[in-house]
Design a protein that fits this description.
The chain starts with 18 loop residues before the first helix and ends with a helix. It is built from nine helices and no strands. It is mainly α and about 210 residues long.
Length: about 210
């Protein structure tokens, strides 16, 4: 790398903070969001880099600059949105532990939207794609650990108490199951009854 000379010296500008870098970040974000939408709507088979690039409004070359392979693009896309959903969940409860029924409902909501549908398509593809499988397995494990940690924090759960960890994990497994059911049909009334029952289970298991 060469030495910076001329009037740009001493300006206090930071690497990655210029207009070019800002445009690059915007392009990357558009690609990630388009990739998630494509996966959720068209599945793995219909979600090519070219299709995603067109939806994002960028060239295929630009897409491949940011994500050299299809696997890079889609694993990054699901991870990106998972992180955003985790952040949104935290923002709902900025004061820390909250009313447990509200937390249970919010956790279920994590598994009934476009993110979960996209992740599900990625899982199905990974079961048949040797190159994709280890990346998706690692991603899912990381997202699962983070979601569990957030759930423990928001529920005010003490996992040193026998059975509490299993209750929290059971809650997340239930939420994932409702997300799977929601892929085929939106049974909101039944889901509401299940959520209400799990709220009672959580209250009884976690205590005051």
């Amino acid at each position: 790398m060469g030495t910076v000379t001329g009037p740009t010296q001493g300006t206090g500008s930071k690497p990655g903070s210029g207009p070019k870098q800002a445009r690059s970040r915007v392009t990357r974000r558009h690609l990630l969001e388009a990739a998630v939408s494509c996966l959720a709507e068209q599945g793995w088979a219909g979600s090519t880099v070219a299709v995603v690039a067109e939806r994002a409004g960028v060239s295929r070359g630009a897409a491949q600059y940011h994500f050299p392979t299809r696997e890079d693009l889609f694993t990054a896309a699901v991870e990106h949105v998972a992180e955003e959903r985790s952040a949104a969940l935290r923002e709902l409860f900025t004061a820390g532990p909250a009313a447990r029924p509200a937390v249970v409902e919010a956790l279920v909501d994590l598994y009934t939207g476009a993110l979960f549908r996209a992740a599900l398509q990625l899982w199905v593809a990974a079961s048949n794609e040797e190159q994709l499988r280890p990346r998706v397995t690692e991603l899912e494990a990381r997202v699962g650990r983070e979601t569990h940690r957030i759930a423990v924090e928001l529920l005010g759960a003490d996992e040193s108490v026998p059975g509490v960890r299993e209750t929290v994990q059971g809650l997340l497994d239930m939420a994932r199951g409702l997300g799977l059911a929601n892929v085929l049909t939106d049974d909101a009334a039944r889901r509401a009854r299940v959520v209400a029952q799990w709220s009672r289970i959580v209250e009884a298991a976690l205590g005051p």
